[in-house]
């Protein structure tokens, strides 16, 4: 008598017996349209992920090996792009919702292990110059190495006593600091900061700041909005522009910085687990941070594979907290000098 797969034990599904897999879904049995509508990505992209992550997802145990990498990846993509463990999705690939959750954890960790491979600043001079040229082509802002901003992702309350994750809207969230290039490729992603921290504090404590102050790029800068302090490596808008040059600078700054907002919208639109439409991420802050970073890795891989059409704004329920800040004008005289020189040289 056949046993319905939905009632099989989760460990049996994951580890089985006799070194065999129990999943029954085959990529070649379905259409590209089905894969995109259900899992968010086309067949060749999924095959690439299988090659990339296969070794990590096939680690043998004393009892057996895991569900096939292909099925684990489909389960994870289904969650990332829909935001829920749907019964019909589990049924389609032959595993339970509990097993889907385990697959998401496996794939998430495999992607996080490879984050530095796909999310990083360029190092060779030719690529750095190309990065600047791409930004300059947007609105005439020279020397730009990336645009930086923060975005909140809702999570479940860690516990009743911990208020460090409660943001200005009274919701629990992670405040994620990201930098992208002119195409929306992420160059840096720090996804673990508690939602109570304002953007300027996140940047002050971030590895990004240490990276730019001690190691990188003395001949360029990032662009950030007025929630950040002006620094020698971070150009911000002028609080009250007065001259035509200052207005032109602010307009070019705003048009260039808008790339990061579009990137946030694209990521939320593609990865619905982050947009709040299915509720908050039902994981600890650490696991939620890893899921966000895994989606960032997938975002960059998708751009690498030509899936780079800007998406429409997502319609999720997570409103971004508006920063209530005083204008962050720097007391750094060298930073002020650099911005003034930029104004005189390129916008006068």
TrEMBL record:
Its main location: cytoplasm. Residues 148-300 form the DDE Tnp4 domain. One of its GO terms (molecular function) is hydrolase activity. InterPro entries: HARBI1-like, HARBI1_animal, HARBI1_dom. GO terms for cellular component: cytoplasm; nucleus. The keyword Nucleus applies. The keyword Repressor does not apply. It is found in: Cytoplasm; Nucleus. Belongs to the HARBI1 family. Transposase-derived protein that may have nuclease activity. Does not have transposase activity. This is Putative nuclease HARBI1.
């Amino acid at each position: 008598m056949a046993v319905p797969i939905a009632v099989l034990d989760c460990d049996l599904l994951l580890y089985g017996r006799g070194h065999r897999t129990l999943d029954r879904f085959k990529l070649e049995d379905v259409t590209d349209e089905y894969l995109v509508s259900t899992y968010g990505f086309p067949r060749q992209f999924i095959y690439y992920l299988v090659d990339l992550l296969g070794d990590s997802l096939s680690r043998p145990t004393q009892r057996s090996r895991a569900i096939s990498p292909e099925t684990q990846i489909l389960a994870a993509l289904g969650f990332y792009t829909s935001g829920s463990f749907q019964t019909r999705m589990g049924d389609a690939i032959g595993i339970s919702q509990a097993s889907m959750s385990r697959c998401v954890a496996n794939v998430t960790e495999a992607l996080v292990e490879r984050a530095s491979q796909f999310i990083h600043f360029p190092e060779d001079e030719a690529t750095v110059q190309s990065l600047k040229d791409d930004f300059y082509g947007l609105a005439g802002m020279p020397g730009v190495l990336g645009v930086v901003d923060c975005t909140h992702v809702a999570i479940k309350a860690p516990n009743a006593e911990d208020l460090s994750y409660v943001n200005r809207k009274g919701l629990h969230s992670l405040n994620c600091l990201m930098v992208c290039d002119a195409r929306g490729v992420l160059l840096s992603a720090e996804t673990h900061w508690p939602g109570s921290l304002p953007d300027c504090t996140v940047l002050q404590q971030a590895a990004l700041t240490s990276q730019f102050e001690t190691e990188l790029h003395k001949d360029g800068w990032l662009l950030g909005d007025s929630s950040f302090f002006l620094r020698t490596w971070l150009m911000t808008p002028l609080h009250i522009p007065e001259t035509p040059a200052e207005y032109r600078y602010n307009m070019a700054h705003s048009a260039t910085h808008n790339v990061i907002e579009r990137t946030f919208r694209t990521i939320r639109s593609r990865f619905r687990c982050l947009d709040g439409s299915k509720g908050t991420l039902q994981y600890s802050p650490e696991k939620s941070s890893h899921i966000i970073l895994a989606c960032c890795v997938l975002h960059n891989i998708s751009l690498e594979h030509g899936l780079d059409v800007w998406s429409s704004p997502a319609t999720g329920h997570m409103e971004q907290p508006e920063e209530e800040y005083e204008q962050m004008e720097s007391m750094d005289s060298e930073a002020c000098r650099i911005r003034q020189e930029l104004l005189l040289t390129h916008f006068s």
